[in-house]
Design brief:
single chain; about 180 residues; alpha+beta; 2 domains; three-stranded antiparallel sheet; two-stranded parallel sheet; 5 strands; about 10% strand; elongated
Length: about 180
């Protein structure tokens, strides 16, 4: 399974260097057997994110973007990896067609923006896909709400919801799709 995941990841055009980070010598030997670069990490890593950080510290070259691909993802599409990398590249922060969203620690939306003036590209933000779901009772209220200054400035209807005191919950999408704008 890990070999198939590695082979799929190797097809991603956006990856400069692909390594397997593991604390298990059997996994390392298996991966070396099919040609993967392996970085041994400590057993103290609680999860893949900590393992990625430890591996990054051991690399000679420095990278701005690191992609954590779990070894049990043999069906991962290389295009998805490329889109995840592109989503973190700074130019998306300045693209008005890429709506940015900042969320609080509980996963609720705090702000949406088309530009980079209100969303610092160095501050963590999510790219908003053009899909929302609403309670039907709220949809009856929405047209009665007055347009807000931020909604009009950004041309984003989500701001009307937030500025009128309603909450919107964010979920993560692992299948990134582009829009046509």
């Amino acid at each position: 399974m890990i070999q198939r995941t590695w082979e799929r990841a190797k097809l991603a055009a956006s990856l400069d260097h692909l390594v397997v980070a593991t604390d298990d010598e059997k996994i390392a030997a298996c991966c070396r057997g099919f040609g993967a670069d392996v970085i041994m990490t400590s057993e103290s890593c609680w999860n893949g994110t900590e393992r990625c950080n430890e591996a990054l510290l051991k690399l000679d070259k420095k990278y701005d973007i690191v992609v954590n691909i779990q070894g049990d993802e043999p069906l991962i599409e290389p295009e998805i990896i490329d889109r995840v990398v592109k989503a973190l590249q700074p130019e998306d922060a300045f693209d008005p067609n890429c709506v940015k969203c900042v969320v609080d620690n509980c996963g609720y939306d705090i702000y949406f923006s088309r530009g980079s003036g209100k969303v610092n590209p160095k501050f963590p933000y999510l790219l908003h896909l053009g899909i929302q779901s609403y309670d039907s009772k709220f949809l009856k209220i929405y047209p009665e709400l007055q347009p807000t200054l931020l909604q009009l400035e950004e041309d984003l209807e989500q701001l009307k919801v937030l500025e009128n005191g309603y909450k919107m919950k964010k979920i993560e999408s692992y299948m990134l799709e582009g829009n046509l704008s």
